[in-house]
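User: Here's a structure from my thesis project, written as structure tokens. My advisor, Dr. K., wants to see whether a designed sequence matches the one we expressed. Can you design one independently, without my sequence as a hint?
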């Protein structure tokens, strides 16, 4: 199933010809009082929600997708985990381009050595939010990535069990300000973690390790690869991350980008596509 968020936090089931508004199914979610839980309540109760949503959808009108303002399909991740240089050809291009590595050895080391990084959850945006570029005197780059949404609490999970903890997948744009600072700082500006256009539940993508992904800017193709070329696949990334911190429902893992990263400017139009998920159109503006 494909779930989208749109408008003022409404929830829809995505069909070929449009979207069924199933916001009423949120009634199955538990009520909370302060202190609120540090995870996404819908993702934590996804199975219950989907059961109710199937019933609600039968009486729901079909809304044209073109009329909807799509938000991030996940509202409240406790953290966004990034996987740096997780494609060998991207690592090769970083090592040979000073504009990418800025003489910082941590930018050119293998992922097994430098580990993962965190993007601020405040960087999260949906397709309709667009990308609001900061530091326009510096290079800002697009990076298309498979995004993994964690479905249940995961701590010290083995790679053999890892996919059981996945709620679903989405397209991720990990936008990057180039410079000498640590990745977490340069990748955490508002709107620099675009997620969308919807959440595809894990049952529809049994093998996330063989998906074509690509991105174009103003109609020009910039990146085109397949997740089979990831150095650490989805199971390995979940194992790696959960060995250091507990992953909570709604947490997002950005799995890394292939070669072909390049600058974006205000006014650009980005179209990112991942097989079995779909396409996501995002506009770029100055903050």
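Assistant: Designed independently from the structure alone:
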């Amino acid at each position: 199933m494909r779930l989208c968020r749109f408008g003022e936090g409404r929830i829809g089931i995505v069909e070929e010809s449009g979207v069924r508004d199933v916001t009423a199914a949120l009634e199955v979610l538990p009520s909370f009082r302060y202190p609120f839980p540090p995870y996404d309540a819908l993702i934590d109760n996804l199975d219950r929600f989907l059961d109710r949503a199937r019933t609600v959808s039968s009486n729901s009108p079909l809304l044209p997708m073109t009329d909807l303002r799509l938000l991030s399909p996940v509202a409240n991740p406790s953290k966004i985990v990034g996987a740096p240089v997780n494609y060998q050809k991207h690592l090769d291009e970083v090592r040979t381009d000073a504009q990418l590595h800025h003489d910082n050895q941590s930018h050119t080391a293998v992922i097994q050595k430098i580990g993962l990084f965190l993007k601020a959850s405040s960087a999260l945006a949906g397709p309709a939010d667009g990308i609001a570029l900061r530091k326009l005197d510096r290079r800002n780059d697009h990076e298309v990535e498979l995004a993994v949404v964690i479905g249940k609490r995961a701590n010290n999970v083995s790679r053999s069990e890892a996919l059981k903890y996945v709620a679903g997948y989405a397209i991720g744009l990990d936008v990057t300000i180039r410079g000498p600072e640590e990745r977490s700082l340069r990748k955490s500006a508002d709107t620099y973690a675009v997620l969308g256009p919807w959440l595809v539940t894990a049952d529809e993508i049994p093998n996330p390790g063989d998906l074509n992904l690509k991105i174009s800017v103003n109609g020009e193709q910039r990146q085109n690869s397949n997740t089979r070329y990831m150095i650490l696949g989805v199971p390995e990334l979940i194992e790696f991350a959960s060995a250091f911190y507990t992953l909570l429902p709604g947490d997002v893992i950005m799995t890394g980008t292939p070669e072909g990263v390049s600058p974006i400017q205000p006014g650009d139009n980005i179209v990112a596509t991942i097989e079995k998920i779909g396409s996501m159109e995002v506009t770029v503006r100055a903050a």
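When you compare it with your expressed construct, this may help: The longest strand covers residues 166-174.
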